[in-house]
Structures are given as structure tokens and as C-alpha cells.
Amino acid sequence: MGIGKVVLWTVAAVLSVASGFFAQKKGTEYIREMRQMERVPKVSVNHIISGEVSIEGTTQNSKAYLRSRYTKTPCFYHRYLKEREETDSEGDTRWVTVERGSQSSDFFLGDKTGRVLVKLTRGGVSPDLHKDYERESGRYRYTEWRIDRNENIYAFAMASTKSKEHYISFDQTGSYTPILSNDGALENRSSWGTKGVMFNALGISLFCFGCLFFCFLFRIHRVLVFLSLVSVLVFGVLVFASLAMMKFDLTDGYDRLARIDKSSVEEINKIVNGNFDGDWNSIPGMISSLDVKSKDRVLGIRDDYFASISRTNEILERFPENLLAPLWGIKKWKLPEGMTEVDKEAIEKTPVKTWVVLVSMLVAIILILLGVYFGFRRIKIKRYVENIPTSLSSGISYGPSELKGVTKFIEDYDPLIGPETKEKCVYYRHKITEKRRSGKKTRIVVIKDETHEIPFYCKDREGNTKIIPDGAEVTAELKFEKRRGRRTYYEWHLPKGADIYILGSAVIDEVEGDKLAVSDGKDKFPFIISDESETEVMLRQGRKGLLGLGIAQNATIFLGLILFGAVGSFAATDFLLAAIFAPLFLSFSMFALMYNDLIFLRNRVKRAWANIEVSLKKRSDLIPNLEQVVKNYLSHEKGIMNAIAGLRNSVVGKSAFTPAEADQAMGHELSVSNRIFALREAYPDLKGNEMMEDLMNRLARMENEVSMMR
Asked: How far apart are CA 641 and CA 627, in angstroms?
């Protein structure tokens, strides 16, 4: 592996892991923020106390209006954007920002119980609003987002008291995420939950790719090793994130409840002149003399307090929170006197939007299918490279074959000429790219990318094997790269005498008819031609296979996360259960690989045995000729004559052999062949006989064939 690839894989691995930590942390934060919204019940204006509030109402007049930038509409807030349409050299259009900004004023948010001041001018929030105005004029586009009078608005903010009047703002610290939106509480919670699922899935994917790049770096190509590493990593990350989120969720909820308990007592004491001592059973008698609005406020504060206790305790009663909370020193909040089962409030589920679930599931399933197909296909090719033995040209047999040698021109075909290097070759790929600028962006466009090849020989120490490269997956070294102006020219080629590795199907040469050639056999067997070593070819295929399976595993985990998101609980246990999807995919992959290996080995044994039988049948034609030649020269050598006769009787006339019979025949033949070779040296006339020489060479070649097949 070159130093460039080492640096590339190292940087890619480190960046992937670092980005994965960031994305996973961001996803966990979104889930935490969504759970904070769950714990805060929606309140009426008259029931507001100091602390986090979730409130919805309509906007009402404040001291002054603003005028929106483009429509001059009276409003409390507006954000504006002016864009200009630009066209690049390719004719593509895009919008470029010319002007943007926002203005805000304070306003009141009211419902049927009253109104509360919203101090928007203090900042701390970026309102999430529906688009109110858009207009195109010439090359310009104008857009506005506004908060108008009598518009429905939802706010998640902090409530405070000033001069006995409450107000809400977004710039104070607390257990909340500032929100000011046209969408309600449930829609915002669903949005946060969706972001949490997506970022967690992205983080897991980046962890997986980081692990993949480390495997590339350390030349690990075993699928089960890679999937085991990823499964352990993903399981560990999700378990750690789940426990961290669970602890924060429980601790934050308990701390907020302590603040609400204190604020509730203080607010009620303000109304009843300090006569409330925390006995909630005394509330009905204590408020009997109050006016209707004060009664409603006291009862509303009590009900919201009970709802907060109910929501916090419901989370503490879940599994495994009920087991882990005591270990972290967190106990269930004691129910106050006067709180009954009727006062308990269940947390409303916050499912991910249906269309998001359906689209995500469809994408995940497509990625799983494509990843599994592509990954297992490449892993299968890698296994072929590993397991199929290398043949010599004299020992090549019909069917899957592996060859190593050097390229050699065939006289009947004119050599190709590289368009850039002008060198003779049997294959070349020519590519031209052009750098094009569009505004501040630059992109690379492919102008030309074509390949050409001709049949050639693969030459080894025992002869030549014809290669017909049409349809092959060819890998060749980059021989030329040069930039001329905005264009860059590339050329890859295979010259004469290049070391070459070939995996393909040996079939009958359609031109010569009586010889085998390696080509695309149309039998779904891979056809690879490469100037890399066998090890590098195997690693290349392994990397592609691991990439495909990594994508499929990521998609499987994402599918698990989105399914739990569709349920809408977003509990820590959902992430714990989603972590199980990684080892499940590992188990499936192990089963599929083992099954594929067994089928491959069975078919390979059948094919090899069929070739051995063909070789033994060839001997049945060859040995009688050998017997006749030896008989003419060595009629006085009765021992060798009897041995050849026995060998002939063991193979001639037989149409099939058992493994034991084949071993016996091969052993007998080897013994006879050794004796004949010795006699050739002793008898010059026998050694000089051309027919005898040809017969013995053919016997030796068939010995090599059977050895390879075995």
C-alpha cells in the first residue's frame, strides 16, 4: 500500500469517527430537548408561574407596531430576504442572497384566561414561522416571514415576575430550548424527535465508515471481522448514549420538579397572603373567599404541579429507569396530600411524522437491498480470488479459471495505440475532465471517458492462453495525467509484457475451435483483468464488499431507529433495542456467507471431479498407444509390459470412477510413468522416438492437470 493511501485512509477514519461523535452528540441533545418539552405541561396564561412554560395563544397589541420590509404590513416581528437569480456557464440557475435581516418588538400572547407579555426584543430565539409573502420581480425574489396581530403562536420559554406581573422571555437559562413557532407543541416535539433520530443514525453511519476505513488501513478484509467490530462499536455507542440520555433525563426532570414545587408554593402564598403551608388538601377551603380569577389561578397552579409530578414519576416507573434511577440517587417524587389517580396525566406520544417514517423506511429498505446485493456479490468475488487455484496455460480446464503471467500481442490483431502516451497496448482507458466555474463554486465535468481493448495472450512458463477482454472489469495503472488549460487528460493502459492477473471463465475459443480461451462466459462468473497482484485484487474486492455491507448494516440500524421513532416514545430503551439490530445483521451475514461458501465449495468439488474424470478418460485413449510404443522397443522387459497392461485394464472401458478407484489408477500410473522415464534414459532409441516423447509429455501435463484439480 502506498504512502498516499495510508494517509488517505487514516485521515478518512479519524474524520469519520470525530464527525460521528459530533453527530451522535447532537442527536442525543435533540432527544433531550424533546424530552424536556414532554415534561412541561401546556399551561394557560392565568396559571403561569416562574420557570419553564409551554404556552399557546394569539398575539395581541403591544405599545408599538413594526412595518414589514417589503409589504409594509403592521406586525410584531418580521424577517426578510432579497435574492437575485444568476445563471452559470452551463445554463443552470441559482438564487444569491442580496439582502437579509429581521426586526422584532414585544407583544402580548393571550388566551381566554388572560394575556402575558412576550419580550421578544431581548432575543434568545429565532422564530420558526410559515412564509407570509413571496414575490418575484425581474431577476429578484422577495420573501417575508411575520408575526401579525391575532396570529396563533406557540412558545416554549422561561416565565419571570416583575412588579407582580409575569412575562416570558427566551434569553434566560433553564431546562428548555427556546421556541417561538406557528406550529404547536406536538409538532415541535415531533420535529426535535425526528432530528434526534436522523442525527443519531448519521452518527452511527459515520462510526461505521470510520471502522471501515481503519479496516482498509490495516488491510483487514474478513467480512465477519469487520461486521463484528462494527456491531460491537454500534452497540456500545447506542448503549452509552442511552444511559447518558437516561441519566440526564431523570436528573433534569427531578431538579425541575423541585423548582416547580418551590415556585408553586410561593405563587399560591402571594394570592392567599402567606396562609399556604404546602397542604394541598387545604386549598378548597382556602380559596373559597377569593374572586373567580384568583380561584382559577390557584387551582390551575395546583393542577399543573400535579401534572408535572405525574409526568416525572411516569418516566421513573419505566424499565430500565426504575432499576437505574436508585443507583443514581434519584427517587420517585412523593405524591402530595390531595393528589389522586384522577390527577395523574399520561405523557402524550410524539411520533415522527408519517410521511417522514414512510420515506425513511423506503430509503432504508432500498439501501439494505442494494448494500446486501452489492456487498455479497463483491465478497463472493473475493472468495473466488482466494480459493480458486492458479492454473498454468497447459493445465487450464473448462470453467472458472485463474491465470497469472504477462501480456503478449496476438499477431492477428493490430495493437492499440494509447491516445496520450502513443504506446502500443492491449487495453486503454482515456478520460478528459474540465474544470468549470459557476459563481463562487467550481465543479469538474467529464468530457470524455472511453475504453478500448483487443484479444491478447497471457504468457506463463508453459505457454500462452488467449484472453478475450470484452466485458471484463479491467484495472490498469494510470500511465498519463496532464493538465492543459481547464482540461485534464488521463490514460490507463496495459502494455506488452505487463504483469497481469486474470479471473474468468475458460470456454471454447470460437475462432480456433479446438482450444480454450478465457472470456466473459455469460455464466454470471466474474471476469477480472488487473495489473495488480492477486493480493491487491482480493483486497480491492474486499473493500468494495465491506462498503456495501457497511451501508446495509447502517440502513438496518436506521430502520430500527425510525420504527421506534414512529411509535413516538423516544425512550432510552428504544435506543437500547435499536442497538440489537447490529448483531442481528451480523448473524444474518454469517449465515448467508456460510451458506454461500458451502454452495461454492460443493459446486467446485463437482466441477473438479468432472474434470478429473475427463482427464482419466483421456488416458484411456493415450495408454494403449503408449503400450504399443513400449512393446516395440522393450519386448524383453516383461515387468514393465505387465505393468502397462494392468494400467490399461484399469482405465480403458470405464465411464466413471469413484474417488478410491481414481486414486488407485493415478498411483498405478505414477509408478509406471517413473519406470518408463528411467528406461528412456537407459535406451537411447526409445528416448529419441518422437511419438514416445509426445506421449510422455502428454502424460506429464495430465498429471499436472489432475494435481491442480485435486
From this structure: 7
